[in-house]
Write a structure and sequence with these properties.
The protein is mostly helical. It has one domain. The protein contains seven helices and no strands. The chain is globular, with a radius of gyration of 17 Å.
Length: 181
């Protein structure tokens, strides 16, 4: 009987994690794909989803697909940047790395090192936005992408990451979503 209870608990936990991965991926993809504008609202929801996933999922391998979902949603929609969409394709690897910096920063500092949430959020948001701005600046300087990417990959990324972190705090830390739900 004990083996069946253990197996049942394992199946339940696995199903819970799998459902979470699909749910977070769906939110990460569908919000940019269906809503699209305003970019600030979409960015807040996407960053909150990434942060919640970083704190709630058991391993990095479960979080990895989520790093790609938002930018693929934006690219699939093709409307957010209008004529700039082909340039967005050039930015995709940098966006994915920026998302990874946010997720890894949050997960490492909060979940693995038990650091203060707000300091961890600030550091991770700065890492993401700084990397994206630096990448955009280099690509603009080389005349590979237009200057509009400097704003969208700098200050906007910082603001939406911080605001997304505030939303994620409300969701996770205040108990609306726990690992066992």
């Amino acid at each position: 009987m004990e083996i069946n209870a253990s197996a049942s608990r394992f199946v339940s936990e696995y199903a819970n994690q799998t459902i979470r991965v699909y749910l977070y991926f769906a939110i990460g993809f569908l919000v940019p794909f269906t809503i699209g504008h305003p970019q600030e609202l979409v960015g807040v929801v996407v960053n909150a989803t990434l942060i919640v996933a970083a704190l709630q999922l058991d391993s990095y391998k479960e979080v990895i697909p989520l790093l790609f979902a938002p930018s693929l949603g934006v690219l699939a929609r093709g409307l957010i940047f209008g004529p700039y969409t082909p340039f967005l394709a050039i930015m995709l690897p940098f966006i994915w790395i920026g998302n990874a910096l946010l997720v890894v920063g949050i997960r490492e500092l909060i979940a693995n090192r038990n650091q203060n949430y707000w300091i961890s959020l600030g550091a991770s948001s700065l890492a993401k936005s700084g990397f994206l701005f630096g990448s955009a600046f280099a690509l603009v300087s080389l005349s590979i992408v237009p200057a509009i990417f400097l704003m969208t990959m700098g200050a906007t990324q910082l603001i939406t990451a911080l605001a997304g972190g505030c939303l994620a705090f409300g969701i996770v830390k205040l108990g609306y979503l726990t690992k066992t739900n």
